[in-house]
Design a protein that fits this description.
- The complex is a heterodimer of chains A (506) and B (264).
- Helices cover 59% and strands 12% of the residues of chain A.
- Chain A is α/β, with parallel strands linked by helices.
- Chain A folds into 3 domains: 148 residues, D-Maltodextrin-Binding Protein, domain 2 (3-Layer(aba) Sandwich), CATH 3.40.190; 96 residues, D-Maltodextrin-Binding Protein, domain 2, CATH 3.40.190.10; 219 residues, Orthogonal Bundle (MetI-like fold), CATH 1.10.3720.
- Chain A is elongated and about 100 Å long.
- Chain B has a domain of 174 residues: 3-Layer(aba) Sandwich (Rossmann fold).
- Chain B is 36% helix and 23% strand.
- Chain B has 9 helices and 10 strands.
- In chain B, the strands form 2 sheets. In chain B, strands 6-7-8-3-9-10 form a 6-stranded mixed β-sheet, sandwiched between helices.
- In chain B, a hairpin with a 2-residue loop joins strand 1 and strand 2.
- In chain B, helix 3 packs across helix 4, helix 3 packs parallel to helix 5 and helix 5 runs parallel beside helix 6.
- The chains are: A alpha/beta (506), B alpha/beta (264).
- The interface between A and B is medium-sized, with 24 and 26 residues.
């Protein structure tokens, strides 16, 4: 050490100390944010989240909702400003743990998993599940009917009490990632019912004449404000403020304004220690989540394989049209490639799944266009990858020397025969490596199909890691599964290449 | 392995046939490549086409096998007549019949690289003529033996030398039982020591009575093996006669310059 001090000029290590001090200061900033006069940062997702918090239709720069009103009331009681911060709903818990904001209030349900990581305030709303069906539905009169009847599919959101209820009762579910689409699909007849928190049903289903509520709301749960465990002091202040709002009727006033007040809410005042640990603690062990990941991987392979087959079936004729077709067809084929290569797959999936069926309904095209999620996914990827594949095939086929065509021609071979027996087998060797590349890319690209309610590997990962908070562990298992799918493909391709190269080396 | 074996497999069971060109004219844009060419090749005759590059030799050969179109004139191949219609195309059926009669061998071999020597030879008889695969295989083996490659039937083209590749190409053409062969500078891409093995095969076929029309730069071979030498320059036939006359006593300046440059 002494040697070091002698070697380093004196001001150098003082500079190091200064840096260490700065790091210390930075690491304690979230503690100082609890100072009474600093604004509290409140995170929620205002994206389509009525009636909790959402963009005011009259002024999209402005957020409204019962949680906005509640935040205002709390701010007044606490005597400090509460500043809203837009945050992806799915990431609220991890964002809170990382210290991106001070509190999360966004219809966040108190669950044992979350309680293990976070500190919750006293509940500010008691929610229940509301079953919604189409207005002309006669089979389903209560939630019990969903269990009794076979072939019933119920839509809900991921990582919700409703989903856990449905899984527990082994009812077929379809999982969405926003609150609009389950009701839209219900209306289109793609699913039979939707089970979601009552406030969501009040906002999205009640105004719709084509939908109706069935059965009484059931299965209570609690919304509470989530904070980090090191914020106990702040939680106590919030709890006192909430208690005052409940006692003076201001909370009831807010809920009545948003039409979500019901008798259940009386319990908020009566029970000081609400039993929020009703659900059994779930242990997310490898043996428990891995089979679910494997299920997701199977879906990924299924969609990728069928999409690729479709891409080949469309891509090869497109390539041949571009190479040998008459001018009008050549132009059409080129337009196809430019179009499908140029649009994002997400856009196409939305169009095929939501747009097409809406148009079919509006124009009376019949149910041919009402695609199932899997059909839409395979068609979407097939159409887009066909554009990529056709370019690979065109380059591969075009690279075969014209002399090969002439030699076959001079032997009396017809053009189709020459293509099939002479040109394509040679082009395959050139096509295969980029095609393998594309297939591996496709395996990973399929992760976007969750937007049309298909649960594949990445979606399964998102759901499992959110429930268990084991982002790293399950992430590694998921990555391993992707590698298991893609690496052997690379080896197979290289093996075939080698074998073929032995024949064609000049 | 270089000396072609002389196993007695006839290249063809059909009698040879004649080729006759009448006023064949071919342009590329404003370039006149073949200018009113008329030429008779008798059955079983060997004709060497020589001349400076760009003189139209290869184009002439390719017109005979319908790999190139021509604008005017007629080509008689045996009983068939090639004559471009209004769109410049020769009807497909005639094209097929002419190709059945005339095999073609290319300067750069154009073997199918993904097929073995034997598979190269038997591909067209099986796929085009729908012959019995077993019989075609047997005949293919014999043809490869005949060109001295009986031991290399299962080799892929890249495993063969240039001379061996060209001999496979000849066997491939013979497998279709043609009555004439069109050879487009078939020894140009070969090392001098490999040219002999290919030319020997040609001489062997000539002895059997195959009609041969060959574009060549091998003046020595032309003198020894050709019945007739035709000098093509600037799209015209500038000289046409037996080798002793054309090569040893050329009549025109064009031929003299060309020969002195080649033999130079």
């Amino acid at each position: 050490m002494t040697l070091h001090f002698r070697v380093l000029p004196r001001h150098d290590w003082r500079w190091l100390l200064w840096c260490a001090g700065l790091v210390l200061c930075l690491s304690t900033t979230h503690v100082s944010a609890q100072d009474d006069n600093k604004p509290l940062i409140w995170a929620a997702d205002a994206e389509g989240g009525a009636p909790y918090i959402y963009k005011d239709p009259k002024d999209p720069n402005h957020n409204i909702g019962f949680e906005v009103d509640l935040a205002q009331a709390l701010s007044r009681e606490l005597g400090r400003p509460i500043v809203f911060k837009q945050y992806q709903f799915n990431s609220l818990v991890s964002g809170l743990l990382r210290g991106d904001f001070d509190l999360a209030m966004n219809g966040l349900e108190v669950t044992p998993d979350r309680r293990a990581k976070l500190l919750f305030s006293h509940p500010y709303y008691i929610f229940q599940q509301q079953l919604v069906v189409r207005a002309d539905e006669t089979r389903i009169k209560s939630f019990a009917d969903c269990q009794k009847l076979s072939g019933i599919t119920v839509g809900t959101l991921e990582d919700t009490a409703a989903l856990r209820l449905l899984s527990h009762d082994q009812i077929t579910t379809k999982i969405y990632d926003n609150q609009v689409e389950p009701y839209a699909d219900l209306e289109l007849g793609r699913i039979d019912a939707v089970l979601l928190d009552l406030p969501i049903a009040v906002s999205y289903a009640q105004p719709n004449d084509n939908l109706k509520f069935v059965g009484e709301p059931f299965a209570e749960g609690y919304y509470a404000i989530a904070l980090r465990k090191d914020q106990r002091e702040l939680v106590e202040k919030i709890d006192r403020a909430l208690a005052k709002l409940i006692a003076n009727g201001e909370l009831q006033h807010i809920y009545e304004k948003w039409q979500i007040w019901n008798d259940e809410q009386d319990k908020l005042a009566h029970s000081s220690s609400l039993d929020v640990a009703a659900e059994s603690q779930q242990l997310w062990t490898l043996s428990r989540y891995f089979p679910l990941l494997v299920d997701g991987a199977k879906t990924t392979v299924f969609i990728s394989l069928l999409s690729m087959l479709l891409a080949i079936a469309i891509g090869l004729p497109i390539a041949m049209l571009r190479l040998y077709g008459p001018l009008p067809l050549r132009i059409l084929a080129t337009l196809y490639v430019e179009f499908f290569r140029g649009i994002p797959v997400l856009l196409l999936l939305y169009f095929l799944y939501y747009g097409l069926s809406g148009m079919a309904k509006a124009y009376g095209w019949g149910h041919w266009f009402d695609l199932q999620p899997f059909q839409a996914a395979i068609l979407g990827f097939g159409l887009i990858y066909a554009a990529y594949e056709s370019e690979i095939y065109r380059a591969g086929i075009g690279s075969i020397a014209p002399g090969q065509w002439e030699a076959a021609e001079s032997l009396g071979m017809s053009k189709p025969l020459t293509f099939r027996r002479i040109i394509l087998p040679q082009a395959m060797r050139i096509i295969l490596p980029p095609m393998t590349n594309d297939f591996v890319a496709l395996l990973k690209d399929t992760s976007v199909v969750s937007v049309i309610a298909v649960v594949e590997l990445t979606k399964q990962y998102q759901m499992l890691s959110k429930s268990s908070m084991k982002y790293l562990e399950i992430g590694i298992a998921t990555a391993a599964l992707y590698l298991v799918m893609s690496v052997p493909l690379g080896y197979l391709s290289r093996y075939l290449e080698k074998r073929w190269n032995k024949q064609t080396l000049r | 392995m270089s000396q072609p074996a002389t196993t007695e497999v006839p290249a063809t069971t059909q009698p040879p046939m004649s080729i006759k060109l009448q006023g064949v004219t071919k342009r590329y844009g404003s370039n006149l490549i073949l200018d009113n060419i008329s030429l008779d090749v008798a059955p079983g005759e060997t004709v060497a086409l020589i001349g400076p590059s760009g003189g139209g030799k290869s184009t002439l050969l390719r017109c005979l096998n319908c790999l190139n179109t021509f604008e005017a004139g007629q080509i008689h191949v045996g009983p068939h007549i090639l004559q471009p219609d209004s769109s410049g195309e020769v009807p497909g059926a005639v094209r097929q019949q002419v190709r059945r009669l005339l095999g073609m061998i290319f300067q750069d071999f154009q073997l199918f690289p993904h097929l073995t020597a034997l598979q190269n030879v038997i591909e067209a008889p099986i796929q085009v003529l729908h012959r019995n695969p077993e019989e075609v295989r047997e005949r293919g083996m014999k043809l490869l033996e005949r060109v001295g490659l009986g031991a290399r039937t299962h080799a892929y083209p890249h495993q063969l030398s240039g001379g061996q590749k060209q001999r496979v190409a000849i066997a491939r053409a013979l497998a279709m039982e043609p009555r004439g062969l069109l050879c487009d500078e078939i020894t140009s891409a070969l090392d001098p020591e490999l040219k002999g093995e290919v030319l020997d095969v040609l001489e062997d076929l000539k002895r059997e009575g195959m009609t041969l029309l060959m574009v060549t730069h091998e003046i020595g071979f032309a003198r020894r093996a050709a019945d007739r030498v035709v000098v093509l320059a600037g799209g015209k036939i500038v000289e046409n006669g037996p080798p002793s006359q054309v090569i040893d006593a050329p009549q025109t300046e064009r031929t003299k310059t060309f020969l002195s440059r080649v033999l130079g």
